[in-house]
Protein: Cell division protein ZipA
Amino acid sequence: MTHKGKLFFFCGKMGAGKSTKARLIANKNGAQLLSEDEWLAAHFPNQIESFDDYIHYSSLIKPFIRNHVARLINLGTNVVMDFPANTRKQQWFLSLCGELACEHQLIYLDLSDQQCLAQIDKRRQEQPERARFDNEAVFHQVTQYFEPPTDDEDLNILLVAKED
Structure:
């Protein structure tokens, strides 16, 4: 039997630091990093103007991502998915773990709204091109859908809390 890779993915509110943590986990584990933002920008440049656009285009890339991740995991490559697993409707992570029968870890970044908003503000200052979406109004729109992971999802959850 060949060794399968490990799958890492993330849950946390907008601005919780999922992308930053994904890069650290990928480096630490010699893993292939897959970024939803990069895939969307490459395949649908300048086409995401709203949250509804994001939902639409994000759903279009998922079948390709799923196949790519499956191939990498089955080759023994660790994979870090910088894709949000922020709602129960995003069952594709759960089904992917079951389908691949691989070791996995859901890293849950549990930060307060105030901490996330502070990080979003900092990110907007460092990357002004993100200002259209990195703001308090979008944060509240997106956060209304956020659901923290629960034990009944049968996922290996690592809770990362950040104190104020």
Remarks:
- The chain has one domain: 7-161.
- The domain at 7-161 is CATH 3.40.50.300 (Rossmann fold).
- The radius of gyration is 16 Å.
